[in-house]
Amino acid sequence: MTISVTEYFASRKDDRKKETRYLNVINKDSCTSCQSCATVCPVDCIYEVPSAIPGQSYHQIDTSRCIGCQMCYRSPNDSTEHYQLTICPWNAIDMLNNPNVKPDDDSVFAPYWKGDASAELPWSKLEEYGYQLRLDGQVFLPVAREDLIEILDWLCKSDWLYTEAGDTVAIAEETSRDDEKVCFTATYEGRELLDCIFDDWQRVWMD
After folding, report:
1. What gap in Å lies between CA 126 and CA 154, rounded to an integer?
2. If 133 and its partner were Cys, which of 41, 61, 168, 186 is the partner (CB 3.0–4.6 Å)?
3. How many whole angstroms separate alpha carbon 41 and alpha carbon 84?
4. Strand partners, 94
5. What pLDDT is recorded for position 48?
6. How far apart are CA 174 and CA 191, in angstroms?
7. Beta 46-49 vs 160-161: how paired, if at all?
């Protein structure tokens, strides 16, 4: 069984010691909350975002705790060079090369930043959470992790290039906060911009 987003952040602990080679992200639009991924996750970093609308609940992965074991994506022991036994029956999980392990020389976000040119943005982390915003439209973070919240705050600045005419927008906004968690939601323009930014990005194709 999986737990809800509220229960997850009420008991969440920071227990990953280092960045991992891969990260997994669930596509909200394809997820049916069947729990297949959460059942096999060895570090319990997958939680459900419930909805009052039937069939609209979905699961999300806490990428800051994901260890890249691939268990929610495929079954390594039951896969071969020519056959992949995938865990998710809806192909709703994207496996990515973790941008924090081996960052590109130029981030996919860099050409779109039109704010302070001297600012040192956390490009790799922006890619990690930006991709999640692209797929789900939301990112939940523990309220105690101010370092992660500061990363999403960069995406909330209205300094991201949106049109060829030079118009800029905020990619995300903080939409809720309680004692355990903060929710950031992609703006309408931000979601369109993220689709453009990640149009040909580093998903790992293993099927």
Report:
1. 8
2. 186
3. 18
4. 25
5. 97
6. 15
7. unpaired
